[in-house]
Q: What sequence folds into this?
């Protein structure tokens, strides 16, 4: 199924800083920035493209359903091995413009996971208390523990995206944050966290259509915020902020993936595949029993006569 | 679909303190206990029964899948209306002996929900810090906020179940806790929480089979704990503790449901139906727009020419 659907390694194709042929046009480069993303060019990635596959929506939806089982088994192994002390865990960071499909990714990809092993955090505008602390203060307690897949729906990257565009923090503070993020993520990686950072990349035309749909449907009004149009008007500034954030914080231990997201079905299978690749990279194993199996079978057998009510 | 599958109102059939004919044999009564469960008799409920339906496993699995959509829509409405200030939320408490199927309920029923609106807490043996506080100290911060479905996989009821059976707390302290729980849950209910407390009820024979399966499969060893057999040996004491906990804490604002759980498929559809009934009871509504829809459509239209890269 997967072999037929994907004609390339989408995990590599969408990863920033990887040389690719065709598909996305991410350029490889070296540079002096904090991150390893120099040479990356967001403007060269077509939000309507579907790198790695020539399939259509119907096949995409079938692939999404068919790969759920592998995703779940990998997750269960990850969770199981942590019970025996393995430190591995996964952190997925999801960033995007409004209406780019984050909600759909959560409900169609991450909803395939077992709830026990998923820790989802939706970061909102910081509260007064949060603003009184360093920007990472509210993030640190939400990183996943061993065996868990953590999902950040928005994240500490808001602090170099909207905060940059809206000038909520002075330029030198924004500048400081890129380095702070790299160090923060390095610490997570060194304690066993496989980090995957995903930008869902839509075009402004596609966003307009989706916001229009929300306005047209009373059951979707609650998803609409007048501020969405305010932010939309700053599109070039946001893209510049994404470009810079990706350049400065891309790292081997915390790579960025730019996922073309005009096609919802494509973004979903691509994210599913990226998460599966991260789990395969960990290659989690069922832990061996920390007890004597035969002895336990005997103890259990000795209780075989138990009846209730007696 | 639902009409054909259920031949009774399973939400009522399984609710403690409701008079029922056939199916479960929960007796109705009145009493002087803290709760309204006097007259309830756990021993009269057959763990192998399937109250409310004469269907088989295949039909049960079909029903579970078919009702996912209603469950999700109700959940989305609950979440949506909270954005506009509605206080309603749901707390599901799940209690059971080991291997009774809690994990399956989480992975087959609650996994149907949208992750954003589900808050799952698995309560483990209390830590040293938790033991230094009142038993509700660790529970209070985990109750769901508006719009959220909270699921407690084990809960404050452990403090009157294993703690009673194992005498981890003196009898007068256990006695105090029933009343404390009733008051705690009353406070939750008064702030908009619909509480549903579920005991998955298996027979000791069924448990032996499931524990044996875990011991026979290396991929399931991580789910097995030698302590499971120790607790199993105290089966009558546990059932007495459940009986008492249910009697003393059943209340109109926080009812108990005893779900026969020897058939996994039955327990899953029954729990799904109980949660759906709780959500229907709230009857959540799409909130009306807090903005001028036409004005927003005009603002959006004014940005129609936006292109990027420009």
A:
């Amino acid at each position: 199924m997967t072999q037929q659907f994907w004609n390339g390694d989408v995990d590599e194709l969408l990863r920033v800083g990887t040389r690719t042929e065709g598909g996305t046009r991410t350029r490889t480069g070296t540079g002096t920035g904090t991150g390893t993303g120099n040479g990356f060019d967001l403007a060269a990635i077509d939000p309507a493209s579907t790198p790695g596959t020539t399939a259509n929506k119907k096949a995409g939806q079938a692939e999404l359903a068919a790969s759920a089982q592998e995703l779940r088994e990998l997750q269960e192994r990850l969770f199981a091995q942590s019970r025996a002390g393995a430190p591995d865990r996964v952190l997925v960071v999801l960033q995007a413009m409004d209406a780019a499909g984050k909600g759909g990714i959560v409900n169609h990809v991450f909803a395939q996971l077992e709830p026990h092993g998923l820790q989802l955090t939706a970061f909102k505008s910081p509260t007064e208390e949060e603003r009184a602390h360093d920007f990472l203060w509210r993030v640190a307690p939400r990183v996943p523990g061993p065996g868990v897949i953590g999902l950040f729906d928005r994240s500490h990257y808001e602090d170099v995206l909207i905060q940059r565009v809206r000038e909520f923090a002075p330029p030198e503070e924004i500048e400081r944050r890129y380095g702070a993020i790299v160090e923060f993520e390095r610490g997570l990686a060194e304690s066993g966290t496989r980090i995957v950072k995903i930008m869902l990349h839509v075009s402004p035309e596609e966003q307009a259509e989706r916001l229009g749909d929300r306005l047209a449907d009373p059951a979707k009004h609650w998803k609409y915020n007048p501020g969405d149009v305010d932010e939309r008007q700053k599109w070039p500034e946001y893209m510049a902020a994404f470009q810079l954030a990706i350049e400065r914080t891309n790292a081997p231990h915390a790579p960025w993936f730019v996922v073309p997201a005009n096609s919802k079905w494509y973004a979903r299978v691509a994210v599913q595949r990226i998460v599966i690749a991260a789990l395969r990279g960990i290659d989690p194993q069922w832990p061996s029993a920390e007890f004597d199996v035969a002895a336990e079978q005997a103890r259990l057998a000795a209780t075989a006569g138990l009846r209730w009510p007696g």
Summary: Residues 2-285 of chain A form a domain with the Rossmann fold fold (CATH 3.40.50.300). DSSP finds 13 helices and five strands in chain A. Chain A has one domain: 2-285. Chain A touches chain B through 55 residues (CB under 8 Å).
